[in-house]
Amino acid sequence: MVASASPSPVSSRPVTVGSSATIADLAADVVGMGVRRVHVLAWRDLEDEDAGGSEVHADEFMRRWAEAGLDIVHRTSAARGLPATTRRNGYAVVRRGSRYSVFGRTAVAELSGRMGPSDGLVEVWNGVPWFSPVWYRKPRITILHHIHGPMWDQIMPAPLAGAGRFVEARLAPPLYRRTQVVTPSEATRQELLGLGLRPERVTAVDNGVDEFFTPGGERAAEPLVVAAGRLAPVKRFVLLADAAAEARRTVPGLRLRIIGDGPVRAELIKWATDREATDWLELPGHITRAELRDEYRRAWVVASASLAEGWGLTLTEAAACATPAVATDIPAHRCSVVDGVTGVLAPPERLGATLADVLGDPDRRERLGAAAVARAHTLTWDASALGVLRVLHGAVTAHRRTAGSRYAAEP
Predict the structure, then answer these.
(1) What is the pLDDT of residues 291-325, one digit of tens each?
(2) Burial class (CB in 10 A: 0-12, 13-18, 19+), 170
(3) Coil, strand or helix: which one is 248?
(4) Are residues 405 and 354 in contact, defined by beta-carbon separation less than 8 angstroms?
(5) What is the b/e burial string over 286-301, where b = at least 16 CB atoms within 10 angstroms of the residue's CB?
(6) What is the pLDDT of residues 240-284, one digit of tens each?
(7) How far, in Å, CA of 397 to CA of 402, rounded?
(8) 66: containing domain
(9) Backbone angles phi, psi at 126, to 5 degrees
(10) Residue 14 in domain
(11) What is the DSSP secondary-structure string of 347-387?
């Protein structure tokens, strides 16, 4: 990896970026203040077989920052079948270490300089923090999509789940109180404040919706519910199947298509077999992006029974295709879905009845779909990448002022 020369710690360039600044403006100003090479640490890479919304988010802002002139190095754990190093969308990708060892290996690589020099750092905290406040002294920010909370019991055995909760809720937050943190929803921001993070240091920046997702085609002839995502326990796809089965009692012909793959697939197959539901519960597995758009367009509603999310990306992608959502009433869904306007949120025990209500009311679905696509048009990845870069710009500016004060005080 070619190392870039590190600029002087304090630039004489004035900070002139205002509220109307573009990504290019902010990137130029950041470079002018001495931050050109930015390392972005994340647990998984976009091309990892387990990648999800967090990885999409990282790619969307990194490609835009790289296009604007920042030198981006993306550091993640190794991914099966993929090379240790590559380039994608204008930035470098380094995949080394297991799902667990990547944290320590990356910190050591940063401290030893094996990753090459960096001028700034973006840490994506996905359950397990990188503890960058302890070992990184240059400008940095943290992106935290959601609090895992009850998810720990689903992804870890009891002793490790307790340890995960302790680290997330008790050990790490005090270390991050001086860190600028970005989160994709106001609901998650409030959760972070509940953990003790400072209000002035936590910024909610909405996720975007790719312009690829648009209305088109025709709806399925019969009631079709589509859900998409990694088939992981936290998504509670079995709960969604139960809700769909309940809704079928009053919505004849209802079909449920669950798009994706993962550890819950076998459980869903067994569920469908045991209930003789294989004729209406369909599991097509991984599909192409174009096929996913077609699924959203044919669906009468998109659904999610998730226990926790950072945002609910599939719900806003479907919204861009004029498809309303029926989803569990969790903090992140309250930001990706405007309840009663672009979709309907419900507690888990009411999910089946809510599906039936929305599927059985075509006028209501039409209104919800129209509002969903209108709102989706306001959510862009350009705006999201700009919002995250604005937070980094603030961190760089604050670091520059602190450094300037320090140098001025030296004899």
Answers:
(1) 999 999 999 999 999 998 878 999 999 999 999 99
(2) exposed
(3) helix
(4) no
(5) ebeeeebbebbbbbbb
(6) 999 999 999 999 999 999 999 999 999 999 999 999 999 999 999
(7) 9
(8) 23-208+381-403
(9) -120, 80
(10) no
(11) -GGGHHHHHHHHHT-HHHHHHHHHHHHHHHTT--HHHHHHH
